Amino acid sequence: MRDGTEDDAGDSVRDGTEDDAGDSVRDGGEDAPGPPEPPGPPEPPAYDHRVLKSLLGAWALAACSAEETAAIEAHLTDCATCAEEALRLRDAVGLLHPEDSLDLDPMLRSRVLEGCLGRRPARIPVPEWAAPYDAETARLDALLRDMAEEEWRAPVLLRWFDGREEATRETTVAGVIGHLRAVDGLVSAALGLDDPLAELAVQDSAGTSPLTRTEAYWRAAPAELRSPAIREPWREQGHTLLRTVSFAGAASAGIEVSYGDFALPLRDAFLDRAFECWVHAGDIADAVDYPYELPSGEHLNRMVDLAARQLPVTIAGRRRAGLAAPPRRLGAAGAPGRTLHLEVEGSGGGHWYIPLDSPGAVPSRAEEVAHVALDRMEFCQLAAGHVPPQDAAAGQDGDREAIRDVLFAAASLSRL
User: What ranges does the record list as Acidic residues composition bias (predicted)?
Assistant: First the structure.
């Protein structure tokens, strides 16, 4: 190629067009006419003061043409009257925009995290069973973040069902957060983390009962019951719990967390703490007159499932205390006994079959003696002790005694 076409083409360029063009320029010298000058920008149209003043409203709305905008802005540098009017109109335009709410969607954090993790999974993800606790503490923290200092001293009435009747304690918004921190300390202790009661030099006599721990915390830190300063240690405690179980992985799910008269595996303790966080967030929201939503359907279903799984043991405990009817069909261990069909309606609900005669009995649809249907909010309010069991608005069919035992057991799941 170098001996033929390419060299001939190179000679053609060098010997012809390029040299001739160069000679043409050099031979012409300064006498050769240059290229014509490009036309300048057109002169902007002239507008008198009256026209420009009439255009100020359109200019404030950004509705003028480019020529009109240039003319108006040039005029504003010379005319103080029009400049003052233009400023007033621009401020007025700002008021025409709809006011945005300062309240963020409580589920925004969960949706953002879900979207991010769906595209790129976290290197150390939060365990699935801890996700409801993560979501509910984040929602409560969002509510607390925008509260005025005086709202932290607003009175809050905490209610639960003690197995026989409604029980109450009155505290403040800050006191509710102190209660959550004290009971979350049971999970911290099970994981070998710092216990907030130990930080306050509360002796072991407080025990592991949520009620005694809470009252001990309130006595040891009275100043925190009226101050937003409690928010930060509560947040940090929750973050530490989530970080710890995330690093520990699946092996930590079965660690036992003692509540005094009963214990839960860690995976269920996190669901229990998520449910209580939501319930007390609702108590706080009521105290400061703020709307608060149910947990997401997926998370609520796990909380309801935990309550349903606890019902057989709770019925048995009430029976030993003489508060529930005696069993009617006792056979070999694991044999089918009477069964109640619990239906929770709405997103997050479902169907559960509760063995009535023994916690170890196998629930059987063939042995179903009663059916109870409740709306998801009704069931949650019942399990939180906010609705007396005898007043629960339930769809009921079948054995009235079995229905009563289950409704009272559900209310007895509640505690401070």
Answer: 1-10
